[in-house]
Design goal:
Order of helices and strands: EHHHEHHHHHHHHHHHEEHHHHHHH
Oligomer: single chain
Distance between the termini: 35 Å
Structural class: mainly alpha
Number of strands: 4
Number of domains: 4
Helix content: over 70%
Length: 395
């Protein structure tokens, strides 16, 4: 991935450092950067490479986009990573020679990428995922037969992390190619639970194309083929498919199908603890969030159900940031459509605090921010700043 150099970030770094109660020396040690470099950056005497920006953000425990100057789009690094991913996709069946770390080390690297995806740290994924995908393709090409299923599963997880970046940033063609690689790798793992996960993720194609009825049929076929065992992993895989099927049914205004899939998801959710299964959050709390999503998709008299649920329950901190942020985005839309613009804006701001990159790239956030701005019924200055932050249309 080409190096990116940012200018004008020094004042922001100095501000965030002071908020964190750190001296320049403290920050230098935490970021593994020389003290002289930190001083020059804060004085504006030198730019900041993408790698240094990430290290400083990690040391400050903040999203790196908070350090970027206004004239830089925070997703520049993401878009510049895309050619690197395309290069991998062009040669995954016959990858170039290169180093491959041992399987335990690759597991750790992929687990880190999965964690970044669940916390919606897309810019950090973009820094590492092209190289990780290339390495996993090489590893799969050279692995002994006994290790191939494990490497294939890792490649599926890494593809999913890369796809989250591509899909959220509008690179739909690249997302589709990553999903094809995911399916190709999944077939080599010989794991029906992993097949269910791939089917779950591939419905992004139908969300993007708005072919919701086709996606629903695909998920229902996947449910027919999913393992019917009582293992926690199998229960969670089927439950996740039902959750997503409910949302797709809601988008088609098929209330009977949406309710049936939600009912099945609740039954399965009550049988497993909330957790991450094959990279997907599932359990009673995740099902509740999907209840809100379905209610918003259905609209009209269902909106009251979404608002009631939100008054009675909030997503716990243990849930992945991306999922919690999504809950408040859905809630904000329900509040906006119910004539509560101030409450809607507050929900959008909560979504941003939880997962800024997820909120910034979400189509509904932009649409709702633009609507709120046109209504001019909430704090004008704050709303203008928010709309500019997420690039909401002002037309």
């Amino acid at each position: 991935m080409p190096s990116i150099v940012y200018r004008g970030v020094g004042p922001r770094i100095a501000y965030e450092r002071r908020i964190a109660g750190l001296t320049q020396a403290d920050l230098a040690r935490a970021a593994n950067v020389s003290l002289g470099t930190i001083r020059k950056i804060e004085r504006g005497e030198r730019g900041v490479s993408d790698a240094v920006l990430g290290a400083v953000a990690d040391a400050l425990d903040i999203d790196p986009t908070r350090l970027l100057p206004d004239r830089e789009r925070p997703d520049d690094r993401v878009h510049r990573a895309m050619p690197g991913v395309s290069t991998v996709l062009a040669a995954y069946e016959e990858p170039d020679d290169g180093p491959c770390r041992d399987l335990p080390v690759l597991r750790e690297a992929v687990a880190a990428a999965v964690g970044l995806r669940l916390s919606a740290q897309y810019s950090r994924i973009a820094r590492s995922v092209p190289g990780l995908l290339a390495e996993l393709c090489r590893a799969l090409n050279t692995a002994p037969s006994a290790d191939r299923p494990a490497v294939a599963r890792l490649l599926v997880d890494a593809c999913r992390a890369a796809d989250a970046v591509a899909f959220k940033h509008g690179a739909k063609d690249l997302s589709a190619r990553l999903l094809d690689l995911m399916r190709w790798a999944g077939a080599q793992a010989g794991d029906p639970i992993l097949d269910a996960t791939v089917s779950y993720v591939r419905t992004e194609l139908h969300f993007a194309a708005r072919t919701h009825a086709v996606g629903l049929r695909a998920l229902e076929r996947a449910l027919d083929q999913a393992p019917q065992t009582r293992s926690v992993e199998a229960l969670a895989a089927r439950g996740a498919l039902h959750m997503r099927a409910a949302v797709l049914a809601g988008r088609t205004a098929n209330s009977a199908s949406a309710d049936a899939h939600l009912d099945d998801a609740r039954v399965l959710g009550d049988q497993v603890p909330e957790g991450i299964y094959q990279g997907t959050a599932f359990g009673p709390d995740s099902v509740r969030i999907h209840e809100v999503s379905v209610a918003v998709s259905m609209g009209d008299d269902r909106l009251g159900r979404a608002l009631t649920l939100a008054r009675e329950w909030k997503p716990p901190q243990q849930l992945p940031a991306e999922r919690r942020s999504g809950f408040y985005i859905e809630l904000g839309r329900a509040q906006l459509w119910s004539g509560r613009p101030d409450a809607a804006f507050e929900s959008l701001k909560v979504a941003r605090r939880i997962a800024p990159q997820h909120a910034r790239e979400h189509r509904w956030v932009r649409e709702d921010a633009a609507t709120l701005r046109r209504l001019k019924r909430t704090d004008a200055e704050s709303l203008t700043n928010f709309a500019e932050w997420c690039h909401a249309s002002t037309g």
